Amino acid sequence: MRPERMAARLWGFTRFVLITGIGFIILYPLLRQLSAALMHPEDMYDLTVNWIPRTFTTLNFRVAWEMLDYPKAVLTTLGFALLLSTLELASTMIIGYGFARWRYPGSDLVFALVVLSIIIPPQMVMVPLFLNFRYFNPLGLLPEPGINLLGSFWPMVLMALTGTAKRGGLFIFITRNFFRGMSTSLEEAAYVDGAGHLRTFFTIMLPNAIPIAMIVFLFSFVWNWNDLFYTDLFMQGKNLLQLALMRINAQYNYPWANKAVEGTYIQLVNNAGMLLYVLPVLVLYAFLQRYFIESIEKTGLVG
Amino acid sequence: MMRRPPRLSMRAQKSLLGLLFTLPFILGFGAFLAYPFVQSIIFSLSKLTIVPTGYELDFVGFENYRHALFVDPRFRQVFAETAVTMLTQIPVILIFSFFAANLLNQKFPGRALARVIFFLPVVMGAEITLKMQQADYMQQAMSLSESGLIPLSVLQSFLVNLKLPLGFVNFIFEAVNAVPVIIRSSGIQILIFLAALQSIPGSLYEAAHMEGATSWEAFWKITFPMISPLLLVNVVYTIVDSFTAPDNVLLDLIKDTAWSGAGFGVSTAMSWIYFLLIIGLLVLTFVFVSRGVHYET
């Protein structure tokens, strides 16, 4: 028994070291940001200061707050992410249910297109989409140059509504999997009792699909919150946090561009700004981490 | 002729419902993927100029591809870099996430906390944050590889002194350098493997144990085959995840070319070359992985 216990102990210790190490690497950027964000500008030139600032200050946060126009920007970003994730949730639930329950000539082909939409890199359609939204003119119905939808919420709203926004295909895929795994007996009972298809979907199926809806909603929210690709492409000029941060970053790359905040000091503001940006998502994750971590088991992707 | 049948047949009704529910996707796919996709072929073969009423296209044949491949000073290098990064990172991410899932599947105090932290990069993976970390000199100067946690220069000279082939040393060097990136990109993959591990019935292990199998044998004969179908899922997810990854330098180059470089035509030509790489990678994975995958039927 003795050597076995020794081996178990040794493995336990190795495991502890490994997990702590990996955890540290994951948390490292966050800790680094926190350290820099709380640092007084003078500490930057103090070689003895590495992790723990000599003078703690909230100055960087106050400057970042001001530069980002934080209360307004955070509300805009929040509203935007909520709007998109709600629309994406609604559309992918409906589409996924359609694929799971009813077949029509060509439905398999259309579902193959869903899978295709997952693996087409968004770069492929980036330039044409940009120009199509710049001169938006569906089927040539509008007068010539069309209307400019760039800088408005419309491009992303339209894409979210049709399940083709960021990773929309993935959401359709998992909602379809979920509904396929649900027994049809509930629906049949509803039909026998005289409920129509739509009514059955909204009053019987949706309430039973809350676990998967939660997953789609949360992931969509977080991915939309973190998105830079589409926001940078379509939403220039909007008061979104990620775009505001990019403006600060540009000032940092060209310190002479901004006289108010001099030179390298802007990197401390940068770090404070990034923390302000991730804070809402961190709070969300702190409360709802169970839903994120148990998500894969519920998607029916595995077994 | 205007008379309608009083009721559709059950079958037709179901077809119609299916079509109705999936119609949003069909429309969206047509408008925001298929149509731009076709446009991108045309754009990549044309010179695109913005005029007051929109844009004009002049057919130039493969000029844009030629420009991307032979004139653009950065494209070939960045493309090769991206291809190599993907080819090396995908296997490493798979191995790491499988390993991490096995770790997290064991019982130990603090397991819940470890899972919360391992999954954190998925939630916190804000593209702007990661981009800015790359640009932030202070972060760079203090980044993991330089802060003494993994002293790379020491490692490199040690490996070179062992007279290992330089290509191998460089591989190790790159791999160690990529550790934070690998860990950060593995969140979802770990969860997928973890869910798969938990779905393996314990009775299989018990039976193997009764028959005298060691844990090592049980791992290769039970765990690995049971998990293999998800290898493909994880490879595909890893590739899809890399499209918009903040450290995808090719993406930056394609964007720069479109808006401040050689123009939209060359940019779409570049994205087409990139797409061919992705297709090649996916075909390669399907061929390799599907050969070794065990499907429980």
How many DSSP E strands of chain B?
A: 2
* Fourth-level CATH superfamily of chain B: MetI-like
Kindly report the greatest chain-chain contact and the residue count on each side: A-B, 96 and 92 residues
The coarse overall form of chain B would be globular
How helical, in percent, are the residues of chain B? Answer: over 70%
Number of separate strands of chain A: 0
Q: What is Rg of chain A? A: 25 Å
* Beta-strand content estimate of chain B: under 5%
What topology emerges from the helices and strands here?
The complex is a heterodimer of chains A (303) and B (297).
Chain A: H1 2-37, H2 59-68, H3 70-101, H4 107-119, H5 122-134, H6 154-161, H7 168-181, H8 185-192, H9 197-208, H10 210-226, H11 229-234, H12 241-253, H13 266-293, H14 295-299
Helix pairs in contact in A: 1-13, 2-13, 3-6, 3-7, 3-10, 4-7, 8-9, 12-13
Chain B: H1 10-44, E1 46-51, E2 54-59, H2 63-71, H3 75-105, H4 111-124, H5 127-135, H6 137-141, H7 152-161, H8 166-177, H9 179-184, H10 187-198, H11 202-210, H12 215-227, H13 229-243, H14 249-260, H15 264-292
Structure, described:
The complex is a heterodimer of chains A (303) and B (297). Chain A is mainly α and 303 residues long. Chain A has a domain of 171 residues: MetI-like fold. Helix content of chain A is 71%, strand content 0%. In chain A, helix 1 crosses helix 13 and helix 4 packs across helix 7. The mean pLDDT of chain A is 85. Chain B is mainly alpha-helical. Helix content of chain B is 74%, strand content 4%. Chain B is built from 15 helices and 2 strands. Chain B has a single domain, classed as Orthogonal Bundle (MetI-like fold), CATH 1.10.3720.10. Chain B has a two-stranded antiparallel sheet with strand order 1-2. In chain B, helix 2 packs across helix 15, helix 3 packs parallel to helix 10 and helix 7 packs antiparallel against helix 8. At the A-B interface, helix 1, helix 3, helix 4, helix 5 and helix 6 of A face helix 1, helix 4, helix 5, helix 6 and helix 9 of B.
